[in-house]
Design a protein that fits this description.
This protein is mostly helical and 133 residues long. The chain has helices at residues 2-5, 10-26, 30-46, 50-62, 80-90, 95-102, 106-120, 127-132. It is built from eight helices and no strands.
Amino acid sequence: MNHLEQSPAACELAHALIDHGTALHTIGDPHRAAQQLYRGMEAASACGASGLVSRARSQLASAGLRPRRLHASEQDTLTLAEHAAATRASVGLDNAAIAAELRTDAQAVSELLSAVFTKLGTDRLGLRRAMEG
């Protein structure tokens, strides 16, 4: 990992940190596991790897830890269309109502919200809180 920390391979570093944290958790070292998983989550966020961020969050949660907020806002990764759909969904509008307001169809809204949920690591029930943070 020392080599990766000094290279431009940020996503590879994120993978390595998360894998290392997972292994540490498996062998019963929760403190060091959490440190590596948090570092990996930050690195994954920095390189735009939302899937890795989700994996790190899952590992932290399975270790009984509450994943902390990332330094950069996860909302910063949303496109304008995703943000518009997410904002409306967070106040309780259904896909058909969001589609009408955005002048698109419900399938397009469903696809936008799917991307939003992946990027923010939440579902419709947690969307309001994720959008406030």
